[in-house]
Amino acid sequence: MNFLDSVKAEIINKNIKDRHCKIAFLAGIIRGAGALYEKDGELGLEIRTASEELAMLITAQLRVLFNYEVREISVSEDRLNRKDKFVLSISGEKTEEILKELEILVEENEELIVNLKFYDKLTEKECCLKSFIRGLFIATGNCTIPNSDSALNTGYHLELVFSHYAPALSTSEKLAENGVLTKITRRRDNFIVYIKSAEEIKDFLAFLPAPVSVLKLMDLMINREISNNSNRQKNCDLGNLTKQVEAAGKQIDAINKIEVTIGLDGLKPDLRIVAVARKENPDETLFELADRLKLTKSCLNHRLRKIVCIANEL
Questions:
Q1: Which CATH superfamily is domain 3-209 in?
Q2: Considering Cα of 156, then 162, then 166, then 171, what sign does the dihedral take?
C-alpha cells in the first residue's frame, strides 16, 4: 500500500460519532466527487470514486443520516487510469432535502442555487471543519512522497482538486486560518490547492487529524535525511580522497625531480627524511605518514610544501 492509500484508509476507518460531523464528512466527499444532473425535470446527484470502500461508506452514511437507500451503483472503466470507477446515483424525492442539508444547494433570492462558497454553517465547529476536509481529501486528494533513498530534496506533493476557483480559494483560505499554508494553480479545467513541503504536508495530516499517517511521514522524512547525510558524507570522503591522491602525486613528482637534478642528499636532513618516507609510502594519507615519522600533521604538511617549492625552483 502506498502512502496515499494508507492515508485514505486511515480516514475511511476513522470512527465518526456525532451526526453533525458525519454530515460535514459526507459534504466534503460530495464537494470533491459529486456532480449534479437533471433528468426528466428531476434533480439528481452522481458520486464517482475508484474506492469500493468509499462507495460502501457513502451508501452507509446516506442510510444512517437520511434513511436513503442508494439503489443504483454502477461500475465504469476510467480509461485514463485503467481503474474501475464506482458510480452512485442519488435521485428521487429526497434528493433536494439531502442536498440542502449538506449545503450543496442553498437558497438565494427565493431560488435554489449551487453553493460554490465554503460551507461555513456546516463547518462552524472545529470538529466539523476537520471532518469536511477529511471527506474532501479522500474524494479528490492526492499525495506523493519521495523514496527515502532519493538524493534530491524534492518530491513531496499534496493536492486537492476543484472544478471551480471559488471553492478552491475558500478552502485554501480556511486551511491558512488553521495554520496550513497552501498555494493554488490551474491545471487544464481544474483548480489545484497544493502543498510541496514535507513539513506543511505533516501539518495538513495533523490537522485532519490522521496521526498514524503523520508518524509514517515523519519516519520517511527521518530515513530520507539519514540517507541524504550518508550520501553527503560519502561524497565528502570521496572528495577528500581525490584531493589527497592529487596532493600525493604532486609530492612524488617533486621528489623525483629533485632526485634527478640535485639528488635527495641536496636537501636538508629534515626534508630528506620526509622525501624518502613519502617516496617509499606513496599511498599513505598525510595522517598515516605523520604518524610513521612521529611528526604533527601540520609539520609534515609544511615540509612537503617546502619540498614542492624547491622542485618548482629547479
A1: Homing endonucleases (3.10.28.10)
A2: negative
Helix (H, G, I), strand (E, B) or coil at 195: strand
Can you say how many angstroms the Cα of residue 24 is from the centroid of all Cα atoms in its chain? 27
Q: CA 259 to CA 256: how far, in whole Å?
A: 5
Q: 201: which residues sit within 8 A by CB, 6+ positions away?
A: 143, 145, 156, 158, 195, 217
DSSP for 245-273 reads HHHHHHHHHHHHHHHHHT-GGGS-HHHHH
What is the bridge-based pairing of β-strands 190-195 and 183-187?
Answer: antiparallel
Calpha distance 122→108 (Å, rounded):
17
- Edge-first strand order for the sheet with 190-195 is 141-144, 157-162, 190-195, 183-187
CB of 198 closer than 8 Å to CB of 156: yes
Domain ranges of the chain: 3-209, 233-313
Residue 86 half-sphere exposure toward CB, CA atoms < 13 A: 16
Distance CA 108, CA 67 (A): 27
Give pLDDT tens digits along the chain (314 positions).
789 999 999 999 888 989 999 999 999 999 988 888 888 778 888 888 888 889 999 999 999 999 988 877 777 766 655 666 888 888 888 888 898 888 888 877 777 788 877 778 888 999 999 999 999 999 999 999 886 555 455 688 999 999 889 899 999 999 999 999 999 999 999 999 999 988 899 999 999 999 898 888 888 877 777 666 666 666 665 666 677 777 778 888 888 888 888 888 888 888 888 888 888 888 888 888 888 888 888 888 888 888 888 888 87
CB count, 10 Å around CB of 271? 18
Is residue 63 within 8 Å of 48, Cβ to Cβ? no
Nearest Cα to 128, choosing from 53, 13, 203, 16? 16
Q: H helices within 111-164, ranges in order?
A: 126-140
